[in-house]
Amino acid sequence: MEYERITAFQDLRFQTMFQAYFGEMGVPVKDWLPLFREMDEDGRENEAILALDGGKAVGFIQYCPLALSGWFFTCQAGFVREFWVMPDVRCRGVGTALLRQAENRFRECGAGWSMLTTDSAEQFYLARGYAWSSAWQARNGDKVYIKDLAASDCGGCGQ
Questions:
Q1: pTM, rounded to two decimals
Q2: What is the rounded distance in angstroms from the CA atom of residue 75 to the CA atom of residue 107?
């Protein structure tokens, strides 16, 4: 399996995977082009990593950095926006590898936390060090899961 980071969502391999993902969820989209254009232009520094098997895309993880701040504190985090692996390659480590690469990218960008929501893969994330956080609320109403990247990077030392 090969992995390729992309920053342009006009990439047909990404678009094919994204459309398959929405199809599996049963979410109809009338016009895909504006959606992909928005991903490229929304100013959030969106990226994705494609999983490629013999040059064919078989999964992706889409993510972006977050700068969280209040009146006194700031925090850098990474947000996993969308994540999908084709059914015929699930349970072969592709999802774990994609998630690990996104977390490494977050660390490179100075993020201390990885955040995501899920309504279908809770056990997958729990097994990979994520924990449900009641302190965070997502706009989509799904539970928020957080992973401390500093602790997971150094065996729990938090440094």
A1: 0.90
A2: 13
